[in-house]
Design a protein that fits this description.
By secondary structure, the chain is an alpha+beta fold. The chain contains six helices and 20 strands.
Length: about 500
């Protein structure tokens, strides 16, 4: 699996309205005839001009759809290439609106660009909208001129109270967002290589000492000799450094090098008490658009997700909270909040159908995944204390490629080593190569990634009941989880 989504292509824009016809030429007035009463007719409004196109955004490879109950596959958020500029308006008065593709017709592919460009397909969409507005504006200007000839007056009505003066009651999305935004940051990561590649992600203030929690895949490119900067919603930017990273959990902790006073950590909720249907609020920088707020609900819990950052590194595993709040590349590492503004998860992955309309990275189709905050909190505390992650383990190598009936303990481990560690947790519990683990605690297991996702929701030393099959017979045992320090 990986950190992104899967879904159906979004249709293109509908056909644009046609331009109004050229106004008729009035007949020549006879010599010395008096002019018409009421003055001259109005001139038609000039069409609006759209801004030029900007650069592109990052994107991730799409992941295939998965069957219910199987681990979701997603991709990490990366940038897109620049989008092609919209066509210029044709001549004539008023100029015709821009050509817009019919429903279901994709845009032309964008030219290739540097892998970490910003502002791609979204800017192109804004450009097309601006040109379309210009064409429609010309038609409206001509229509208004004709109406003026008839002496029609304005019928606009002003609101009695400007929106800025509305009172936002506690608990509303606007109130929660206003309180949380000052504690959410946009992270710029740049590698130490000659190309200086990097990306944009999100994080949030964890404590008053200046620790920031985010995803490992957001900062991985800058972890070895690169640079990191953190920008708050007020526009102030600070340098940061990596305190620790946990590749398997996809969690990282940064610290501001000159943390300002008065930092306000986001309150942490209890992800174990989250219920399907609960409201959610996601804050992040999708496609580089900082301080973006989206809403949804908890769509599912305990969703096994294996995710990768597309760099060829090891996968991360989580028993995720699933939400339909819109999450896109750049949201990674940002908080998923409950209706009260408490963090219940770290937005990490989306399921996607693939790229479309000339973009190399797909966006949200309403299938987002977040690391439960209870797990993320344990990892963050460990990283702050020691700089290294600690993982609970059962001491057995399981098949990671097959799914359906459970997680089978492999005949042998990596490099010909024993698949069941001698005197390890699994060996002490009586497990053997070829056993198929079908239950872990109160969770049903259908694959190796699902088993690891569930193991990593626990701590070393926890006793967990395991259900397994051997020679066609089902049995149970109890395993006391061991531990492994570090990612290597």
């Amino acid at each position: 699996m990986s950190n992104e989504n899967e879904g159906q292509a979004v249709p293109g824009d509908p056909a644009a309205p046609s331009a109004p016809p050229t106004p008729p030429t009035p007949p020549t007035a006879p010599a010395h005839a008096p002019g018409p009463a009421g003055g001259h007719p109005s001139e038609p409004a000039a069409p609006a001009h759209a801004p030029g196109p900007a650069g592109g955004h990052p994107s991730e490879p799409a992941a295939p759809a998965h069957a219910p109950g199987a681990p979701a596959h997603a991709h990490a958020h990366a940038p897109n290439g620049p989008a092609s500029p919209a066509p210029a308006s044709a001549g004539g008065w008023p100029p015709p609106p821009p050509t817009v593709p019919a429903w279901g017709v994709p845009h032309a592919p964008a030219p290739s660009a540097a892998p970490r460009g910003r502002a791609g397909g979204l800017v192109a969409a804004v450009l097309a909208a601006a040109l379309l507005a210009g064409g429609v504006g010309g038609g409206i200007g001509y229509w208004a001129a004709q109406r003026d000839d008839d002496g029609a007056g304005s019928t606009t009505v002003s609101s009695g109270e400007a929106p800025a003066s509305f009172k936002r009651e506690p608990g509303t999305v606007a109130a929660v967002a206003a309180k949380a935004l000052p504690s959410v940051v946009t992270i710029q990561a740049k590698s130490g290589g000659s190309q200086g590649e990097g990306g944009t992600g999100t994080g949030f203030v964890y404590d008053q000492e200046g620790h920031i929690v985010t995803n490992n895949h957001v900062v991985a490119s800058a972890a070895e000799g690169g640079t990191l900067s953190v920008t708050f919603s007020d526009g102030k930017t600070y340098d940061a450094e990596v305190v620790g990273r946990a590749e398997g959990y996809d969690v990282a902790v940064l610290k501001l090098t000159n943390a300002p006073k008065g930092l306000k950590p986001l309150p942490l909720g209890d992800s174990d008490k989250v219920a399907v249907g609960d409201s959610t609020i996601a804050i992040g920088a999708p496609f580089g658009l900082s301080n973006t707020v989206t809403t949804g609900i908890i769509s599912a819990k305990n969703r096994p997700v294996a995710s990768g950052d597309g760099s060829g590194g090891g996968n991360s595993y989580m028993s995720a909270l699933q939400t339909d709040a819109s999450i896109n590349p750049g949201n990674s590492g940002g908080p998923l909040l409950d209706a009260g503004g408490a963090v219940i998860g770290i937005n990490s992955a989306i399921q996607s159908t693939g790229s479309g309309f000339g973009q190399s990275q797909a966006g949200s189709i309403g299938l987002g995944f977040a690391i439960p905050v209870n797990q993320a909190k344990n990892v963050a505390q460990q990283l702050i204390r020691t700089g290294k992650p600690v993982y609970p383990v059962i001491g057995a190598t399981v098949n990671m490629n097959e799914k359906g009936e459970g997680a089978m303990i492999a005949p042998q481990g990596t490099g010909g080593t024993p698949s069941v560690t001698p005197d390890g947790p699994a060996a002490k519990a009586g497990l053997k190569p070829g056993d198929v683990i079908t239950g872990f605690g109160n969770r049903q297991i259908d694959s190796g990634p699902t088993l690891i996702s569930e193991i990593w929701t626990h701590k070393p030393g926890d006793s967990v009941k395991i259900t397994y099959e051997r020679d066609g017979r089902s049995a149970t045992t109890t395993v006391v989880l061991g531990e492994r320090t570090g990612d290597s």
